[in-house]
């Protein structure tokens, strides 16, 4: 869109590797700080971020705000009398929905989304992970195997632990420490194990921590034999890349449910102790399955044949807004042009 002459003003939270990636790809942006982990801090942060975005908007004078379900963008857009287009795929983000939906003009959700957010909702047949991992945009870099010290054809897997600090993570505990250690010990019998974790690992597991440039992570997932963990996004990324994945979460996601039920690409489990045990056994069973990656690549091809190019759809939606919303309401199949 920038090549076509569009201008963007990016505002990014100081979290994990977001700003590292923005720097890597030479995007200019403003940081809105690290946020907070407790409820009072989160509420105060809303006020701070709203003021910051509104102040920036008065200088930049945008034609619209575009976000991934950002309540801060929604509030600043409303105060600026500018349309806000939000994308969303997380049904469990109840507090987020309360705080951004009333102030948003258009909400784009995947067709597998299990919640109705009102007449503002526009449905597209895809996953958010297709924005950056669709074959039209992503080519895996095999040199990542050298960074991992893995030989071509050698099996390895990725384990992902999250911090459970988002609004929609309140009340979740994830995989127990004992089961984390048990899982790593079990999986290590069959493949090399790499752990990606949002919070610090216990001493027993630090030797497994992955150390690569963050922009190489999707190549790691592409060549991996399996993913096991607490991240819905990473499980869906693996589905899009053709890598088997286990996702552990009490509430689940519409997209990982569809990736399991319709395409057989993801295995979903709850956080119960029984399900944690079952998930470990399922992962071991999968690791022992011959040619599992070839089977998953075929499943992935079927999924890709039925989904749209979400990036192309987003560009069209923005460039033709608000006429594009009217077209989608009257003829939802128009999206299959992308």
What does this structure look like?
This protein is of the alpha/beta class. It folds into two domains: 10-126 and 308-337, Rossmann fold, CATH 3.40.50; 144-306, 3-Layer(aba) Sandwich (Rossmann fold). Helix content is 41%, strand content 14%. It has helices at residues 18-24, 39-60, 71-80, 94-100, 130-133, 144-148, 177-187, 217-223, 232-241, 254-261, 273-287, 292-306, 310-319, 323-330, and strands at 10-12, 29-31, 65-67, 84-87, 106-110, 121-124, 156-161, 192-197, 226-229, 245-248, 266-269. The strands form three sheets. The chain has a five-stranded parallel sheet with strand order 8-7-9-10-11, sandwiched between helices. It has a four-stranded parallel sheet with strand order 3-4-5-6. Strands 1-2 form a two-stranded parallel ribbon. Helix 9 (232-241) links the parallel strand 9 (226-229) and strand 10 (245-248). The two termini are 16 Å apart. The mean pLDDT is 94.
One letter per element, helices H and strands E, the order comes to EHEHEHEHEEHHEHEHEHEHEHHHH
What are the segments in which pLDDT stays under 50 over at least 5 consecutive residues? none
CATH topology of the largest domain: Rossmann fold
Strand content: 5-15%
Instruction: Please list the strands of the largest sheet in the order they lie side by side.
Output: 8-7-9-10-11
Domain count, please report it. 2
The CATH superfamily name of the largest domain is Glycogen Phosphorylase B
Class derived from helix and strand content:
alpha/beta
* Arithmetic mean pLDDT: 94
> What is the total tally of β strands?
11
- Rg over alpha carbons: 20 Å
